[in-house]
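REQUEST FORM: STRUCTURE PREDICTION
Request ID: SP-0412
Submitted by: Lab K.M.
Chain count: 1
Length (residues): 253
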Amino acid sequence: MLMAGAEPFFQRGGPVGALLIHGFTGTPREVRPVGDALAAEGHTVLGVRLAQHATQPQDMFRSHWRDWYAAVLDGYWLLRGQCEMIFAIGLSMGGALALCLAADAPLAGVAVLATPSLPFVNAMGWRARYARWISYGLPFARKGPPSPTGDPLHLAYPQYPVRAIPQLRMVVTAAAEALPRITAPALVIHSHGDEAVPDANAEYILAHLGSAQKELVWLERSGHILPEDVEREVVFDRLRAFVRADAPLPTRP
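STATUS: Completed
RESULT:
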């Protein structure tokens, strides 16, 4: 059963589609504000639910990152049937999945928010490599307190399923390896206040992207869940401008 308020969402608009991808142990609710901002511009938006997310944490004991990616591909092909161009926008691990998609499919652009990359993987240490075995004695790991500036209604699992952590490591690694193959315009948004994903990750993504058109935008006061934090309007403005640069606003009657 889905968590109340954690459902995937779809809003039909014009010929420009935005595929919105949430993060590890998160729900579509955390990218819904981005969808609302782009839908208000007249665009078509789809927020997917990754497999084993938004139900109960123990469902992630059987997670594989390719199941998460399959949900992204399903969303992409749904939008392809209705839109002339598609932008992929991902938060945290959702950004890694968006980067994998950008390497595999034609996109008008890809935007990643607070997204981990190879520096994050390298800092995970030996526990991540042995998480499968650790999980038999410690099935869940405690999450830190939510950002004091974030949305008090943030909806996600309260704990990290330890057995799924190697899959997080794999998808972030796959996205890092895909960076040189990406040619779509790219936008990276990151906060200096993000304690979950250090600044070096955004810098790594920017440096290794194959895109000729790419930009890194820094925030100063936000935590990790950028669409729900104090600088969210800056995030929305940057994303609206990013989409407009390659996709003119639809003509309204």
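NOTES: Residues 65-80 form the longest helix (16 residues).
Reviewed by: T.R.
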